[in-house]
Amino acid sequence: MNSDRQTTDHWVVNEECCHAIAKKYGWPLERVYRDREAKGLLPVRCTYSGNCPFPSYGEKTNG
Amino acid sequence: MARLVIFKAAWPELRKADLQPTFPGGGSSDILSQRLDYSDGAPPRVGDRTLEFKDAGHLEPSSSRLSPWRVARVEEYVGNTGLESMDEVVVAHCEYSPLPEEENPWTQSTMGQITVENFGGDTEAFTHWRESQRVTA
User: Fold this and answer.
1) Which chain B residues are closer than 8 Å to A61 by Cβ?
2) Which long-range contacts (CB under 8 A, 24 or more apart) does B115-124 make?
3) 0.80 surpassed by pTM
C-alpha cells in the first residue's frame, strides 16, 4: 500500500462520479473532496492511489 | 474486487494525537478515513500508513505524504452471499506514530486530463466546457 505513494487527481461534477470512475477502471479511491468555493463546473476532486490516467489517452491504467 | 477499507484509531491514540473526529450529527467518531478500492491490490498490512493531504486551488492538484497513522491490526470481513455491494470490508486499526518532518516530504498529485468522464458521461456538458476553454485571438 505504501510502496507506491503516487496519487492522481481528477476533478469531476459530483461525489458519485468519483465512485463510478473507481469502479469502472478498477482504481483505489483515496479521498473525495468538494471545493465549496469552486465556481466552475467541476467542484469535486477525486484522489486515486497510483498513476491513474483515463485509458483513452493511450496510457496504462493502474491495477 | 470491491473492498471498503475503514481506518480507525482507539480513543487513547486519538487523544495522543489531539484529534477529535466527529460524525455529521456532532457525535464523536473513531474513524480516521476510508478507502474504496476496486483494484486487485492487496489489503492494508501492519506497518502501512494512511496518507494525509494538502489541498490547493480549484482544478489544481493536491499534495500528499504519509500520515502519522500506522496500521497496527487488520480485520477482514468477506461477503458471503455474492449480493453485497462490497466483496470485502477491512477494518484497519491504527496507532499514532508521527514521522520526522524532514523525512516526510509532500508529493504533488498527478492531474488527470479532463474528458467526458469528468462530467459523468454528459457529452453536452463536456462540449460546453471545452468550448469555454478555447482561447480566442
Assistant:
1) none
2) B115/A54, B115/A56, B115/A57, B117/A10, B117/A12, B117/A21, B117/A54, B118/A10, B118/A11, B118/A12, B118/A13, B118/A17, B118/A42, B119/A12, B119/A13, B119/A41, B119/A42, B120/A12, B120/A13, B120/A14, B120/A16, B120/A17, B120/A20, B122/A13
3) yes
